[in-house]
Amino acid sequence: MANKKLTIISGAGISVASGLKTFRGENGLWEGYDIMKVASIDGWHENPELVLNFYNKRRAQLKKVEPNEAHILCARLENTFDVNVVTQNVDNLHERGGSTHVLHLHGQLNRIRSSSDSTYSKNWADDQKIGDLCPKGSQMRPDIVWFGEDVPLMQRAAEIVYDADVVIIVGTSMQVYPAAGLISYARKGVEIFYIDPDPQVNHQLAALQSLRVIEKTAVEGMQIVYDHLTKK
């Protein structure tokens, strides 16, 4: 008999224990930068060098951190379930933790793409600079979905959530759209776990009959959910 399908919807909070800060810090800053200056298409057009330098620092930082126990538990669930991870994170800690099916809604830090042709992209682990061009002569940019841009993988993510028999929400407040709308695709009666140290149960989450809220950090909460799901 095929394993049950489990979908994990993750956000920046799952990577905090690895040493990465959440995307939405205090005062609209991310690692000391104005979010709209470094994570919007307008910011890119205004000052591409600032944007490249910002993501160069994030890429260098990523090399210095390791997956934490929450990432590892997500991967370990593959021993029991058919697991898909839908993450808002641009880091690769899910993959490094052992997860084999990861969809990055907002792009990947270790990939770059042409600024004029979104179909041309490639892996990239080092610094980017002005003058790094695609074969058609356009500047290469981080392969990140910025504010002001469509989220091309939303439809696929919605299908993954719809197919799930179990859903785990971890490291995300589910307050930012369009990603926050994903949970509305879960089928009625599906077991849903929401892990957050300060859970914000909005009307959308409150309407879920089978919701279980776990007021813990990502690491603590994932251990609770893992133990619950694997002891059955």
Summarize the structure in words.
- This protein is an alpha/beta fold and 232 residues long.
- It folds into two domains: 1-19 and 68-106 and 151-232, Rossmann fold (3-Layer(aba) Sandwich), CATH 3.40.50; 21-64 and 112-144, SIR2/SIRT2 'Small Domain' (2-Layer Sandwich), CATH 3.30.1600.
- It contains eight helices and eleven strands.
- The chain has helices at 35-38, 41-46, 48-62, 69-76, 93-97, 154-163, 203-206, 218-230, and strands spanning 5-10, 29-30, 33-34, 82-87, 102-104, 107-114, 121-123, 140-144, 166-170, 191-195, 211-214.
- The strands form three sheets. A six-stranded parallel β-sheet has the order 5-4-1-9-10-11, with helices on both faces. A three-stranded antiparallel β-sheet has the order 7-6-8, covered by helices on one side.
- α4 runs parallel beside α8 (218-230).
- It starts with a strand and ends with a helix.
- 38% of the residues are buried.
- The model has no long low-confidence stretch (mean pLDDT 91).
